[in-house]
Design brief:
This is Rhodopsin. InterPro entries: GPCR_opsins, GPCR_Rhodpsn, GPCR_Rhodpsn_7TM. The chain is mainly α. The chain has one domain. About 70% of the residues lie in helices and about 5% in strands. The protein is elongated, with a radius of gyration of 21 Å.
Amino acid sequence: RFGENHAIMGLAFTWLMACACAVPPLVGWSRYIPEGMQCSCGVDYYTRAEGFNNESFVVYMFVCHFLTPLTIVFFCYGRLLCAVKEAAAAQQESETTQRAEREVTRMVVLMVIAFL
C-alpha cells in the first residue's frame, strides 16, 4: 500500500534529482547564462570553451535526467500493460474487459507522450 513513507521517499527523490540538475553549474561544472529576453537563465549549451566542461555536462543531463527516467517510465508502463493483459486474459473476453484494456493502453500511450 502507498503510505506516508512512500510519499516522503518520493519527495526526497524529487528534491535530490532537482539538486542534481541545478547544483553542478553553481559549483563550476558548466555554467548558467541568460536566455531569451534576458529575464531567465539556463544551462550554457552553446559554449565549447575548455574551462566549462559543457559537453560532459550536457551528456550527464541527457543520460541522468532524460534517458534514465524515460527508460523507467517505459519499463513501469510496460509492466502495467502486461499486468492488464494478463488480467484480461484470465477473465472471459467481454466487451467491458476489452474496453477497459483499450482505455488503459490509451492512457499509457498518453502518459509516455506527455513525458516526452
